[in-house]
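ingest -> validate -> predict -> emit
validate: passed (alphabet ok, no gaps, 89 aa)
predict: started
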Amino acid sequence: MEENVDYTNLDEFEMVPHYYKEYQRLGGKHDYKKFNKSLQKFFDLTLDSYVNGEGDPRDVAYAKWVKYIRSYKQAGLYFEAVDNLTAYT
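emit:
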């Protein structure tokens, strides 16, 4: 995690480079372009369930995310990268 960075005033798009850096730190191997595209899909599939308490139950939303990314490990790295910097639950 980056030291002394205030994420509270950054929007979703400004956060992407920070999320990517954390993803890489965790061992993620996707390049930035693939990460950015996949991250947007991650938010599309899980944001309502995890943050807003709406839509699919969390387990269903996460299962859709895993199916999209085709890797349970990669799914977890994306989730952890976001959650480490901006609490997702």
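The helical segments are 12-25, 32-52, 58-69, 72-85.
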